Amino acid sequence: MHTATASAPPQTSVSLLAPLSGSLFAIEHVPDPVFAQKMVGDGIAIDPTSQSLLAPCDGEIIQLHPSHHAVTLRTLQGLEVLMHIGLDTVALRGKGFTPHVKVGDRVKTGEALIDFDADYIALHAKSLLTEMVITNGDRVQTLIGRSGSVTVGEDIILEVTLAGAVDAETATPVGEQTTSAPIVIPNPIGLHARPAAVLANLAKHYQAKIQLHRGNDSANVRSVIALMNLQVVQKETVTLTAIGADAKAAVLALTDAIARGLGEDVSVPAVAPLKPAQSQQSQPLRPRSTDANLLLGVSASPGLAVGQTYRVREDVLSIVETAQNPVAEKQQLDAAIAQAMLEVEAVRAKVEEQGKPDKAAIFAAHRELLADPELLDVAHSYLDQGKSAAFAWKQAFTAQAEQLARLPNALFAQRANDLRDVGQRVLRLLVGATATAASYPPNTILLAEDLTPSDMATLDREVVKGFCTLAGGATSHVAILARSMGVPAIVGAEPRLLELPDGSSVILDGSQGTLRLHATPDELERVQQRIAQQQARQTTDRQYATYPAVTIDGYRVEVVANIGSLNDAKESVALGGEGVGLLRTEVMFMARALAPSEEEQTTLYRSILQVLGRDRSLIVRTLDVGGDKPLSYLPMPHEENPFLGERGIRMAFDQPDMLRTQLRALLRASGAGTLRVMFPMIGRLEEIQMAKAILEEERQRLGIAPIAVGIMIEVPSAAVMAEQFAKEVDFFSIGTNDLTQYTLAMDRGHPKLAPYVDSLHPAVLQLIAQTVKGASQHGKWVGVCGGSASDPQAVPLLLGLGVKELSVSIATIPSIKAQIRTLNFAHCQTLAKQALTLSTAAAVRALCPLVDE
Ligand code: PEP
Ligand code: MG
């Protein structure tokens, strides 16, 4: 027996036995960033061959997830060991798991904790890979995992040396102070919650005490709240200081990560300055209406909705102020926070599973808030004064939220709502209140002082037609989530909103930021008709979504999808997608600590091919990052003009291992369906020749059949020389987003230039015509995967110019197919010819007016 025993309390290390038989994996290789990036903690993963999870050492069960797929055990030395069976298994809601323990049980090494049905889990969850991680990393000095195959209850798989009573936060670190060079913040909206959470999380990998300074102010980088309180905005200069053994390494790594935007796309322009209503002091100037029947607010999510109001009232939880046993209260608080952490993680996983990784980041930031050292410090100081866990926690988070809300910068002030959201979650757990999923009458327009991201994640879209809140701004997380869910919404509304009796009939115009009260039956009728017409058209388009897109004179166009994930692939097939014209592989490379392995990539490509089936092809674009889209694990020198720098294929040649790994994964997956590879940003003939040579080398090494090769046409030189390029490839796909940017020499993300960066500019159309002509000289086909393929005004022209395949955004598949079925190809050809003679984008748009719903 290798475990710690009760008779040896002052131990400095803990040995954890294999809780399952199977093969070990480094935690970094788990195909889930939450584990791979050690956000939950450091540890190890097992691909199990046994089906009963056993205690890896003696201890007490401090948490058992309600879905029974995860359990946390506290060892006698205070280490908290989370064991998480499978990936995304929370979604199984307990099916396939049989727990043998409950919270509070004391267990001995080798005792059964949870039995599970491996067949069921393998079929219904993402993976069986089981993680064992230490969630209180501050107690860990070193952690050594072993590798290879192990037998349950026999082999030690983790050796943990304890940090003793010393923790990174409270210890007085030794050594010289290291100071970074000045760092300019590149993030469009500064160090707000999401990048702050990434920074705090990165800092946890180091022992050193690290501070971030802006002028005379400074913050502990492990505290998201402290970082947000600094209100660092774009282009401000900060410095880092660190003291401790690994101070130098910490400063170097964190400086680099901050300069790269902490996982955010820093190429997007700064958000337009907010209107005074949103950007001024804590009491924003609200738009006020002079019309008693019209209530004004700020547009948060566009769209029309008609319904009856329902006022959401906040739960009032009853809390006892004092408690007898501070140790027990602390344990309760820790357990509630751990449980809340798991709940938030489940929401994050659900949002990510819905194909919204950027929205999932909101909940990833919530997890960091839950672990915020400053928040915990305040709560602990109340516990030390004899207060109950619930009272201490409430005082801590409300004080911090109020402090945030008072910040003059609205972007930071709005994050107070996130803190209240996670705060309430823990509080409910502490007082034993269950968060019942709210049920509302049909056609509800919710009115509330404020809603939280968690409210949004559980909103029933069938019943809730829209919402209107007093608080919030267009950049609040609630507004971001509303937009992604297509829920019309207004925030920052006039206070009289809350005086409206429940059941009032209203018209909510999310685009205009208005709520019409006491609408006449006539008005209601008209708006309802408009909504109904739009919906009917959508429904019909969806009904016929699987029908081919053939013009009335018999010209067939393939309508395929632009996707970024496996979920997108599923969604696109459900909406009638005839394949994938662009898999943006950068999605799987971004916002993580390490590049995906060959295995992980092969699995993804293979899974997408399986979803598409034999009849639909998959075009995979090799990694298109660099310059404007940095990867945190790929240091690149600063570039003056990132769009003209090492982007796409240029970056791939600079990182040949990464390219080769991806090509091998593609080749290995290719047998599962029809896979084509496509190289981005090709502008010179030598580039495609070199890329093909590398592909061929890897193909021969693997002994796999050849796969079709294409290029993106997004650099004007490639369009102009399409005839020469056509000899080299099997197909072209025109990236009109970049082609327009480079043709017109206008940054595609520039807020002021946005109205002019129009893909229907005749110069771009000329290049498309030239591309099709060059391709046809060698019998090659041309598709379009840029934004104009999803633009109904562009569709007739692209057809007329000879484009055979339109790769569109998933949601527009049914409507673009429906539109094509109304077109006459001969007429499209005439239109295209005419368009090529025009001088401005506006004239082209006038030639192809939108047919109104
Ligand atoms: C394009 O440039 O049109 C394109 C499809 O590529 P991305 O938008 O990913 O740069
Ligand atoms: Mg592009």
UniProtKB/TrEMBL annotation:
Q: Extract the CDD domains matched here.
A: PTS-HPr_like (cd00367)
**Localisation per UniProt entry:** Cytoplasm
Pfam families recorded for this chain? PEP-utilisers_N, PEP-utilizers, PEP-utilizers_C, PTS-HPr, PTS_EIIA_1
> Which keywords belong to this entry?
Cytoplasm, Kinase, Magnesium, Metal-binding, Phosphotransferase system, Pyruvate, Sugar transport, Transferase, Transport
| EC number assigned by the record | 2.7.3.9
InterPro entries cross-referenced by the UniProt entry: Dup_hybrid_motif (IPR011055), HPr-like (IPR000032), HPr-like_sf (IPR035895), PEP-util_enz_mobile_dom (IPR008279), PEP-utilizing_PTS_enzyme (IPR050499), PEP_util_C (IPR000121), PEP_util_CS (IPR023151), Phosphohistidine_dom_sf (IPR036637)
Function recorded in the entry = General (non sugar-specific) component of the phosphoenolpyruvate-dependent sugar phosphotransferase system (sugar PTS). This major carbohydrate active-transport system catalyzes the phosphorylation of incoming sugar substrates concomitantly with their translocation across the cell membrane. The phosphoryl group from phosphoenolpyruvate (PEP) is transferred to the phosphoryl carrier protein HPr by enzyme I. Phospho-HPr then transfers it to the PTS EIIA domain.
Give the similarity note: Belongs to the PEP-utilizing enzyme family.
UniProt name for this protein: Phosphocarrier protein HPr
